[in-house]
């Protein structure tokens, strides 16, 4: 056996190339049952990021449903989700180009694209998401976002007549709506709503209404939620009992509403809920009247479980996956997205007898185990005697090793949101770095989801402080353990993680380089110029604006560029409506005027989050070249 080559960290030649990542990787999401048929969305970088609906029929054939020229993606809240519904062989979906809902009949056709989609909703400045079918009245019920008048968009719950496309407002008055769900008999409708400045993980309200013979709502009643309670995924059981997830006990746990009272179904110090950044999120579903399959998370790891609703017992089901999402259950079985440190995001089917079948993998890239860095879950001390969490990935390559003296450079990853979370799921972009000789720390800083409401609330009024301290302390901790080179610490992040990155580079001296992906540099500009969903987000994270203008300026890297003295590379989509390009451009201009080492790479046609293959490829390669130059090694 050949001995490993001795070479500096960062310079190792890796089979995990940017070309392979973009060529062999697709996005997977939005799983659904339609009888025994299974559906999911594929986001394809090679098709300019187009989202295609795929069907797996009972004959075992996988086929594309969405024809060329259509992209199943909604822009409600800008982040979208809940973009399609399928029922009895007919698909209703939001098309990205015009945001209209289209109907496509596929039942009984051998070539679904031969039956072109037809528009259901009228043209106009409207967006639709989170649709459900009201088969009793032959209509859809969904969230509509109205951009037809100046000022802030208007969100409502609407019905859409399947025969005429006529849109009728059912509920209005709140700033936001989500998760409409109709009882099995069609007589009751529930939904979630919330108002500025709350976000759905801060405070939402759950309402139930009667549906009268004309299809309108009466007797609207609030049954759960408030300013200090987040409700997630209300759903009716097959027998018509309303279930929902609430964090009223600090943890997102499952409840049900019976005889005018809410009762907890499964109390645990773990979470079954998620921050609703997108529509259509699902962590549980019914396989029978008295049985739920769900996923829950504790200490950064996800599990699959079976709940007996009569006995109120939980049975954890052994799977090879450490990250589980998009749970869809029916009498035909359970679908979910599963991944692990060695398995990419995968569409999985679980039969009710316990058999697991892999239906689709997000990556066709096959790596020998020796190239994969297995994350180590770590807990480290941070400010004010508290602890923070993360996943540490040591550099790993079967064909290389360092000289025994050198310590590896470290890239600290700061996730977006900031109310989100990272997991131990296989991430080829992280393996891109570790297989070249970098160490990576993926941080679940204070404010991250999965550790209870109290941990999530750490970031209230302290964005740009707690997250920065946790990322910096995580890097220091690894350096003190002798695992990384304290003189070669970098930080990278996108969106809110890009803000944390720029703050860490500006307000600490821990990091020697950084990469900002569509990151925030000016909190004031973000408060004045962003989309409706996040337009008051900073009220909780920073303070009300403009009353707290001094705090906004004090925490904005753009106003403290004199404190930043290390190289930075910026990546930005020029059509980004969430964090507009001027956020990066102002920062770049200011740093260049100081004579700092700064690079700016902008992409036409990209929005918030890069979707195109050529963009993803170039971004990885440019960031690698940047680190090689800054840290003084020759790239492979």
Poorly predicted ranges (pLDDT <50, ≥5 residues)? none
> What general form does the structure show?
globular
Query: What is the residue-mean pLDDT, rounded to a whole number?
Result: 95
Structural category = alpha+beta
Separation, N- and C-terminal Cα atoms: 23 Å
Q: How many β-strands, per DSSP?
A: 38
- Strand count, sense and closure of the main sheet? 8 strands, mixed
Helix content: 10-25%
- How many individual helices? 10
If you compute it from the alpha carbons, what radius of gyration comes out, rounded to the nearest whole angstrom?
A: 24 Å
What does this structure look like?
The chain has 636 residues and is α+β, with helices and mostly antiparallel strands. The protein is built from 10 helices and 38 strands. Strand 14 and strand 15 form a beta hairpin. It is globular. The protein starts with a strand and ends in a 5-residue tail after the last helix.
List the helices and strands and how they pair.
Layout: E1 5-6, H1 18-24, E2 27-34, E3 37-44, E4 50-56, E5 62-64, E6 84-87, E7 90-94, E8 101-105, E9 118-119, E10 126-134, E11 139-146, E12 154-161, E13 167-171, E14 176-182, E15 188-194, E16 205-211, E17 217-225, E18 231-236, E19 242-246, E20 253-258, E21 261-266, E22 284-288, E23 291-298, E24 301-308, E25 313-317, E26 323-330, E27 333-340, E28 343-350, E29 356-361, E30 376-381, E31 387-393, E32 400-401, E33 410-414, H2 428-434, E34 439-444, H3 453-456, H4 466-480, E35 489-494, H5 496-507, E36 513-517, H6 523-528, H7 537-541, H8 549-554, E37 568-573, H9 582-593, E38 598-603, H10 613-631
Parallel strand pairs: 1-32, 33-34, 33-35, 35-36, 36-37, 37-38
Antiparallel strand pairs: 2-3, 3-4, 4-5, 6-7, 7-8, 8-9, 10-11, 11-12, 12-13, 14-15, 15-16, 16-17, 18-19, 19-20, 20-21, 22-23, 23-24, 24-25, 26-27, 27-28, 28-29, 30-31, 31-34
